[in-house]
Amino acid sequence: MTQAKYLFNSLPLYILFFTTLFFVSCTEDPEVNPQNVSSDDTSENTLGSFSSGVFVINEGNFLSADGSISFIDSEGVVQNDIFSENNASLPLGDVVQSMYLRDTTAFILVNNSNKIEVVDGDEMTVVHTISEVALPRYMVSEGDYGYISEWVSFSDRGRISILDLNTYEILDTINVGFGAEALAIRDNKLYVSNNFEKTLSIMDLNTREIIQTITVGTSPAAMIIDQNGDLWILCSGGYNADFTLANNGSLVRIDSNDEVIQEISLGMNVSGRMAANVDLSILYFYSGTTVYSYGIGDQSYDTFIENTSAIAFYGVGVAPNGDVYIGDSKGFQSIGSVYVYDQMGSEKEEFEVGRGPNGFIFTSE
Amino acid sequence: MRPIEIMGFGLVPYATGEVVRVIHTVDPFKTLDATLFSQAGVYMKNYGHQQLSTISFRGTSAVHTNVLWHGIPVNAPTLGSTDFSQWHTWMIDDVAIQPGNQGALYGSGSIGGTVFIDHFNKIRTNTAAIGWGLGSFGYNFQGARAEYKKDQLQGTTHIYREAINNDFTYPLKGTDLIQTQKNAAALSYGFRQELQHFWNNQRLSLDLLLFYQHRESQPVISQNEGQDFIKTHNIKSVVEHFIDINKRSISTTLGWMNDQMIYNQNPAIRSQQITLTQRYEYDIGDHFHLNSGFLINLLTAKGSNLENINPQKQLDFFVIVTYRINDRWSSTWGLRESFMIDAGSKLLPSLGAERKWIFPKSSLVSHAKIAQGFRYPTLNDRFWLPGGNPSLNPEQSASTEIGFELRYPKFNTQVNIYQTWAQDWILWLPQSGNIWRPENIQKVAISGIDYALGYQYFFNETELESEVVLNYQCSINKSAYPSQAAYGNQLPYVPYFTAIWSNKIHIKKWTIALDQSYTSRRYTTLDESDTYAVAPYFLLDMAIDYPLILGKVTTQTSFKANNIFNNYYENIQNRAMPGINFQLQIITKL
């Protein structure tokens, strides 16, 4: 599986780089960019002009270094490319994978530029650049420490880097499985989904050692801790030997004893991104241009919305008021769109943002 | 023995009704992309300095350019395009370009234009040359080549090595920082052996090309760190038999290409091509000339994502008839029927005409053409796992152009106006289940104008040659994909306007060249987003040449300064190109 992943992800990307722009765009790697959009992404803080609204993370076209951050304020006014605008046109980088907001400091993880830009959240100005990372994916924090997942490469084990949030120095790195992806913290333990495998690594935050590895579904990605304290892992699904879709995506539930207590087969491959409503009772995920919802405790999932005019959904988030935000990459042929749906699935608004919107961070005063 | 001069087709065998530009590779130290950069209607996409480079003509993309080596199509079967940075001019004799749609003449891919590299009617002499070059960013070049001819045999041998550290500096956009480019070094070797044997009215020719390249992949500017690299091995070989009998000639060519590409530590992707083509030429009376023949192509590839591909079989038949009414009027009819098993077939007509007016001190030539073109999907399009779509249809196009050329002894001017309508262009689209799949979805309308003005001026022992080339083109998306907002907009990486002004001054033995070029803004998205557009750029290059002759030995010394104004520019979004840089080149000919 690792080898197949490796080839699927890296080789076509570079090979297709040799040809036309649309071919380049097709090499964007939708399958292995799941985003851990959890309710933690709703931050209550003082962020100046960004204090009430939503940050949109725009991944950018692979190998074009045109990733960006947009901000949609509570009045619906969109400011695009706020990182470059506030940093003298400095390009943010190649494949902006995610952003983590801690108080008034934002950490922007730029995957293919191998860096994390630490920015002042109320002005979006760079205060530090962390470059000792290799293909960084996502970040969480606990106390004075940040935890960063890194793929490292397509042929090496992934790792977790531990960041001193006062000095921005990497204190330690711990190897986990291949394709270290989404992160979640529960009971002083860090959970890491290993996207190129079928496993979940669990690290003790006190000893900083891997204490357990759990087998879950194929291509585990986004994780959310629900209202009951159970951990839900969205597994994207894999491919058959002939590269046809295995259609074996799943939702896996792990209880507080770190045991798999439920696995819901989705009967299809899905994106690795997932979001939950504010009270952590409904999970949202998508495949193609259809968003599905799953109520915690239900036996199956429902179709939330289907947008036939969209090209390709690429990110999902849930606002504090329950509105569901969906990013449409438009196949990376043009700038992306964000669709906003109410809790009943009625479309409320559409915004034009940057290229490849893959995630959202909501702010409120 | 018949003279060698008539023993073969020219570089561009069938041209009537269109512009053909033969580019003499006067600078043997350039890669082919740098040589073609200054041609009207051509846009080279460079993914960094000395990095991957593809060519596109007249608002199309790289896959819409057919590249013929000794008349054999050599675009990579997997990608459908050619990396011109892998072709070094030290290794080839001649190159010509023919902008426009020549599907009937040259087959799949000749939608935007055609590039011709080398042919077998070159006359060899007994000469040898050694080349040496040194330049900025650790550039160094060593090459040797020899031509030989004895009795009924002739041949040429070329060998070269080129390396560059490519550690140039550039200002990081929007900052005061000066970055040093990392991970952009390149190393390449090449070997060529051509042999020809003549007897009676026949010729048997062999040409073998071996290229090796190890290239670090220049990262984007905000990254500037990288470990990626790519290694390529290319073997190209061709054998041709030519016979000329009383106004008739038959040329039979067999080619074999083997390409291997390794990206980082990944398993290699290998592709192979075997091509057999035969051309029959016949002068029918004084007015008609017939070209006809066939082409058989077998294409295959192997790699982890290209498994179990049966060889793809292509068969083309073509007939080209030129009718010369008199010295002033001529016209060409062309018809090609092309079949690709499991990928469809296409019947392609073309019609070209040319009219000359001869005046006492000048001449005027006008030409016009209407033609259809097509392109088969690549092996990646059809068989890439996952996502490849074996059901794709060939892309289609129809083109028309008209042009005029006015020539005086020291002055000439040329204008060409062209239009192309294309449909079923292939785009890779995201699907549910996280895969991408190519589909015949895009329609494009292209229109443009090329203008060239050349001038020569003599004063005592001084000669001035000057040429201005202007190109304006619109390549408009006529599909509502990915949104209605994309309809009616310029395709990505097609500049609306390019301008080139080249000057050469010959003073006694000295030659001074000044080349200026301007490339307008290019969009990178179909909605013409200004945010993601690539800024226009202007370049000024200068070269000084001096030949030192000592007996039978001539040593040509050249000094070059490129990008004299030290402008920061990008050819591809966020990939730095170098500021001012220098090269010293010495060629000693025996």
Account of the protein in words:
Chain A has helices spanning 2-16, 21-26, 82-85; strands at 42-44, 53-58, 68-73, 78-79, 96-102, 105-110, 115-120, 125-130, 136-142, 145-150, 159-164, 170-175, 180-186, 189-194, 199-204, 209-215, 220-225, 231-235, 250-254, 260-265, 274-276, 282-287, 290-295, 302-306, 313-318, 324-328, 337-341, 347-352, 357-364. Chain A is mainly β and 365 residues long. In chain A, strands 1-29-2-3-4 form a 5-stranded mixed beta sheet. The longest helix of chain A is centred in the first third of the chain and has 15 residues, at 2-16. Chain A is globular. Chain B is an all-beta fold and 590 residues long. In chain B, a hairpin with a 2-residue loop joins β4 and β5 (72-73). Chain B starts with 20 loop residues before the first strand and ends with a strand. The longest helix of chain B is centred in the first third of the chain and has 5 residues, at 32-36. At the A-B interface, α1 and α2 of A face β24 and β25 of B.
Multimeric status of the protein: heterodimer
The portion of residues forming beta strands of chain A comes to: over 45%
Count the DSSP helices of chain B: 3
Poorly predicted runs of chain B are 1-9
Q: Helical residue percent of chain B?
A: under 10%
**General form of chain A:** globular
Radius of gyration of chain A: 19 Å
Residue ranges of chain A: pLDDT <50 for 5 or more in a row?
Answer: 1-44
The total count of strands of chain A amounts to 29
Work out the radius of gyration of chain B: 24 Å
Give the biggest sheet of chain A.
5 strands, mixed
Q: Main β-sheet of chain B, in a few words?
A: 22 strands, antiparallel, barrel
Average residue pLDDT of chain A: 87
- Number of beta strands of chain B: 31
Class of secondary structure makeup of chain A: mainly beta
Global mean pLDDT of chain B: 89
Our measurement of the CA-to-CA distance between the termini of chain B, rounded to an integer number of angstroms, reads 28 Å
